[in-house]
Predict the structure of Histidine--tRNA ligase.
Amino acid sequence: MSIQIPRGTQDILPGTVEKWQLIEETAKEVCRKYLYEEIRTPIFEHTELFLRGVGDTTDIVQKEMYTFEDRGERSLTLRPEGTASVVRSFTENKMYGNANQPVKLYYIGPMFRYERPQKGRYRQFVQFGVEALGSMDPAIDAEVISLAMQIYKQLGLKKLKLVINSLGDNSSRAAHRTALINHFQPSIHEFCSDCQNRLEKNPLRILDCKKDRDHELMKTAPSILDYLNEESSLYFEKVKQYLSLMNIDFIVDPTLVRGLDYYNHTAFEIMSEAEGFGAITTLCGGGRYNGLVQEMGGPETPGIGFAFSVERLISALEAEGIEITQEQQIDCYVIALGEKAKDYSVTLLQSLRQAGFSAERDYLNRKMKAQFKAAERLNAKHVIILGEDELAAGKVAVKNLQSGDQVELPLENFINEYTTLSN
Ligand code: HAM
């Protein structure tokens, strides 16, 4: 029996991989303009990192981690997200001492979550994310959001909805937490077992429950925005003001709580509103996580970031009917007829490629007609025909496949002659 790909994973085949490359290049280009630098962290980390970083009441930690013991009996976990690793690395490498502050980083790479696979939800997916550490200026919150929007805009997405919320600082959150416990406690037995556990540990996450979202008490739950203290409230006002100044439309949703424990102050998600995008509409999620660096043993350092998966971005592009890759074209296809010509084509191909041309030849001993077909399939600009007679006369025929024009070029100084022809 043949072995198949594991559930929830994908092969990205040639033909599709170009889309991925373009998305990666676009994201990197935008990061360069915003002065975010790339960071690469390991695919696996100590399990403890995610227990502490992501939070032990989250679905990720409770149900979705790929955790294993290595031969040295250490518990390791394939990273389910990037923020915890980046914050660990920031702390471990003492980046809080860098001359340039805030430290602005981006990453792109595979993440792993044992989720129920469906459209837009994979067990291995590629996240692109940024993290800005060291600034508590609302302008950096707005910058991070605008960076995500800029990548989407540059790729042509239009049907987007930016939703923001503030989860407030610790004291705002504590006041809201008490209000939530008082609100849900009398009827908590009507909620799912996850929510019953969340009541004491992290009642905010009840608002994020998929199973109980239609319960009456969800609609009347106390809003975090009513519990923001003055400082948190002013901070949120500034973020909104900056977004408006940048002409970035948003809506405020006080029920947006996000699925990871480390957030405070600004939280945001970007949704696709394209028809046919599917049931999972979130393209990108992020927020502020002041306190996480300290949690990892570093000095008190504020931070904010976001991540999105390339998989969902591609679905959104498809749902909006946007084709981002162009038809591939190669410069030339070398057709060699006869043994001597074939030998010669090996060096010719080498010289063409070294001169910067994309060039191909036949490796299947096909007839001339089939070789022409192959050149057309590869969308070659020119076909270079090497025949025995031409070779003896020191010439080759070069045919432009678009116009049909054919010229003869001398073999001597061929690369220069061909360069002139193709310009
Ligand atoms: P998250 O909301 O868990 O946040 O994931 C961010 C994004 O990753 C989602 O909006 C979605 O695009 C993508 N994603 C998550 N799970 C899957 C999946 N199973 N299949 C495909 N795509 C998926 C975080 O991971 C935070 N680290 C974001 C962040 C960075 N917050 C601050 N900095």
The mean pLDDT is 95. Residues 81-83, 113, 115, 120-122, 125, 127, 129, 131, 259-260, 282-287, 289, 305-309, 311-312 surround histidyl-adenosine monophosphate (CB under 6 Å). The first strand starts at residue 37 and ends at 38. The chain has two domains: 17-169+229-319, 332-422.
